[in-house]
Specification:
The protein has eleven helices and ten strands. Helix 5 packs across helix 6 and helix 9 packs antiparallel against helix 10. It has two domains: 195 residues, Alpha-Beta Complex (2-enoyl-CoA Hydratase, Chain A, domain 1), CATH 3.90.226; 47 residues, Lyase 2-enoyl-coa Hydratase, Chain  A, domain 2. Bound molecules: octanoyl-coenzyme A. Belongs to the enoyl-CoA hydratase/isomerase family.
Length: 260
C-alpha cells in the first residue's frame, strides 16, 4: 500500500504505519484520516500482518493533533463530519483483531493523543508529551478523547488534562497508566518491535480473542463480560493453536502456532 501522508512497511508479520507530515508535526488533516482508515482496512484483510506499530515521522511528534489550519474554517456540519471521520479512524483500529502498538515519539496532542488512546498498547520515547489542549482553541476533543482518556486514567485525572489543556511528559504519562514503558528516543522503535515480535510468536486467534474480550468486556457489566470470556475460551478449543499449544507444553517443546 502506498500513501501520500503515511509510510507503510511490513516485515516478519509486523506492519509499521508512520504518519508522515513532519512539517506540520504529523497533524491529521482529512486526507491523512482517510488514508489511515484505508491503511487499517488493508491491514485487516492482509493475513501476512499479525501486529501493527503506529508511529510519527520525524523526531518531534507522534501526532500534534487534528490539522488546525484545515479545521479552523469548518462550519458546524463539516466539523461534525470531520469528528465522525476521526471516529471511523479510531473504530477501524479498535475493531481490528490484530494488536496495535502506538510508539509515541514526541507530541501526542489532541487528535494525536486520541489516536494513541485507540491503540492497544502505548510505548513512549523520553521526549513524548501528551495532552488534550482543545480547550486552548475553544473546542473539546472530537475523536473520543473525553471518553477513552477517562476510561484509561480515571475521571479525575482526565478532567484535569481536559480542562486545563496541560501537557504531561512521558514519566507522568507512565505514572498514570497512559503509557506502558518509556524508552530513550533511539530505542523506542526497536523496543516496540521486540514487543511486537513476542506477540507474533503467540497463537494469533487467542490474541484476537484477548483484544475482543478487553474491548467488549470493558463496555458491559462484569457478569456479561465473564460470560463472553467463557464463550471465547470455549471457542479457543476449536482451534489448531489450542491443540498445538497444549501438546507442545506436554511434550516440553516450543509451540508452532499456525493462527488457525
Ligand atoms: N495543526 C496544524 N499544524 C500544526 C499543528 C496542528 N495541530 N501542530 C503544529 N503544527 C504546525 C505549526 O503550525 C508549524 O507550522 P509552520 O512551521 O508552517 O508554522 C509546525 O507544525 C511546527 O510547529 P511549531 O512551530 O508550533 O512547533 P513548536 O515546537 O514551537 O510547538 C507544539 C510544538 C507545542 C506541539 C505546537 O505546535 C502546538 O501547540 N500545536 C498545536 C497542538 C494542538 O493544539 N493540538 C490539538 C489540535 S485540536 C484537535 O486535535 C481536536 C481533535 C478533534 C477534532 C474534531 C473534529 C472537529
Amino acid at each position: 500500500m502506498t500513501f501520500e501522508n503515511l509510510l507503510y512497511a511490513v516485515e516478519d508479520g509486523i506492519a509499521t504505519v508512520t504518519v508522515n507530515r513532519p512539517r506540520a508535526l504529523n497533524a491529521l488533516n482529512e486526507a491523512t484520516l482517510k488514508e489511515l482508515i484505508c491503511c487499517f482496512a488493508g491491514i485487516r484483510d492482509d493475513d501476512a500482518v499479525k501486529v501493527v506499530i503506529l508511529t510519527g515521522g520525524g523526531e518531534k511528534a507522534f501526532v500534534a493533533g487534528a490539522d488546525i489550519a484545515e479545521m479552523h474554517a469548518l462550519d458546524a456540519v463539516k466539523a461534525g463530519e470531520f469528528a465522525r471521520l476521526g471516529h471511523r479512524m479510531t473504530a477501524v483500529i479498535e475493531d481490528l483483531s490484530k494488536p496495535v502498538i502506538a510508539a509515541v515519539n514526541g507530541f501526542a496532542l489532541g487528535g494525536g493523543c486520541e489516536l494513541a488512546l485507540s491503540c492497544d498498547i502505548r510505548l513512549a520515547s523520553e521526549n513524548a508529551r501528551f495532552g488534550q489542549p482543545e480547550v486552548n482553541l475553544g473546542v473539546i476533543p472530537g475523536f473520543g478523547g473525553t471518553q477513552r482518556l477517562a476510561r484509561l486514567i480515571g475521571k479525575g485525572l482526565a478532567s484535569e488534562l481536559l480542562m486545563t489543556g496541560d501537557m504531561i511528559d512521558a514519566v507522568e504519562a507512565h505514572r498514570v497508566g497512559l503509557v506502558n514503558k518509556i524508552f530513550p528516543a533511539a530505542e523506542l522503535l526497536p523496543g516496540a518491535r521486540k514487543m511486537a515480535e513476542k506477540i507474533v510468536s503467540k497463537g494469533q486467534v487467542a490474541i484476537g480473542f484477548v483484544k475482543r474480550a478487553l474491548r467488549d468486556g470493558l463496555e458491559t457489566d462484569l457478569t456479561r463480560a465473564c460470560a463472553m470470556e467463557a464463550d471465547l475460551f470455549g471457542l479457543c478449543f476449536a482451534t489448531a493453536d489450542q491443540k498445538e499449544g497444549m501438546q507442545a507444553f506436554l511434550e516440553k517443546r516450543p509451540a508452532k502456532f499456525t493462527g488457525k
